[in-house]
């Protein structure tokens, strides 16, 4: 990595047992076809290159577990990426990808996908079939909605959706009972569905910089919450039962239209940070 390579000698095809190849921070405009003959490969890194297209031959690397093509200039992923059934982690953040192939649903082993900072307007329903997925990062795209079936992604522990254009959340989101981190900062949400109360494993809920006018009372059931950000919304009142959130370490409620809040000193014994506007009464 960190050279000025833009090609590879054909003799690398003799390295039949090569399992890891790091060509990050070079000048490749495409992945050389010879790389796709190295079928023992488990870890392939091409981040920070000049990739504009991904060869369909990538589907030959059926042992691949880690594939990093982040920070390139890709606009699409080939259908053959679905052949990578051993893949555990896929990083394709910071590209120009505007759609995902349906074959993504065939990544049966996938646990982590980062497709942040692209141009996705739609998250295809096929993605919700990835029941092994633990971390899904789609920050900084152009999503306006999520598939109604998102709740079937029962293994998810981290879902990053900040910096999109979401107006609503599907009711099924409450079925993500393993979810620990949900980041919705910087969207256009005017409400959280009452079903969020079902995400009882949640430790961090980020909803800063939205259009929330109300917080559902069910949020008080999220008693494992350590971090809750509700700042820069349109809230005028907070549910009194939020004092049940006794695990909170951080609570952000500034830049709203609040006149008061229910968090008298001592009610939240683990609270280390409370961000609230001057003059808001207890």
UniProtKB/TrEMBL annotation:
Signal peptide stretch: none
Pfam families linked: LRR_1, LRR_8
UniProt feature coiled coil, ranges: none
Keyword Repeat appears in the UniProt entry: yes
InterPro entries: Leu-rich_rpt, Leu-rich_rpt_typical-subtyp, LRR_dom_sf, LRR_domain-containing
GO annotations of cellular component type: cytoplasm
Keyword Transcription in annotation: no
Key words, A-Z: Leucine-rich repeat, Repeat
Name of this protein: Uncharacterized protein
Species lineage: Eukaryota, Cryptophyceae, Pyrenomonadales, Geminigeraceae, Guillardia
